[in-house]
Each structure stands twice: as structure tokens, then as C-alpha cells.
Please model this.
Amino acid sequence: MSTVPAEIAGIGSTAQRLRVSPGFDPLKAAVGPEEYFVLSRIDGNQSLREVLLATGLPVERGVAIVTRLRSIGALLLPGETSAPAPVAVPQPAAASGTRPNTVPPSISTSGPRSSTPPPNVRRSPTPPVG
Model:
């Protein structure tokens, strides 16, 4: 098990209590699911160290996510009223190791579909094939 570093480059001490920038829009920034999960844990009440441990993600992954969130203007350090302008919006694929807007390989979109409609969905009767 990795330990949380005392400092993170570009952010500083992990004892700090970070906040989400009020004007940050995760949809416009193409924040991925893991990144959004970490972002949702940052509330200004817990230290960055506590947030990293609470996510359950490997520490290195959590640090990479927090670093990316900071670089795209999502996070405020104590005393900041607005996030610094993003240097460049990194592509989610480069930062998270996954391809954005793709279906995981375990989910097939071209295979057979269930003939059972979802609950509360009406299907029109189909004539018998004969």
C-alpha cells in the first residue's frame, strides 16, 4: 500500500483543504468518471490527504487525478478566489488512460439484444411470423 506524499508538485501540501472552483463545469471540461468521483469528494472540509485515502483509489492514481483537476482549473487552493487559467486542457485519454466516450470492451453494442423491454416501456404487439 502506498502512502500519501506530504507534497504534490503544482499543488503543495496534502494537508491543505482544497475546494472546487465555483465556475468549474465538469461537462465542458470532459471530466471522466474517476475524475468526477474524486472531484465530488473535495469539499473544503477534508484535507487532500484525507480525500485521497477516502476514494479507495491507488494513491498514485488519486494524485494524478488531483493534479489534472488542478491543471484544468477545477480546484482552488486555500485563499484562492478563482482558479488559475488552465495551461492547456489535457485530453482525458492522456490523463486517465482510458478512451473518452467509448463503450468498454466488456459491453457489446453489436451483439444480440434482450427481447425483454425495460420496465415501464410498452411494446407494440408483433404479428406472428409464419
About this structure: The mean pLDDT is 79. The longest helix spans residues 59-71. The beta strands are 7-8, 12-13, 19-20, 75-76.
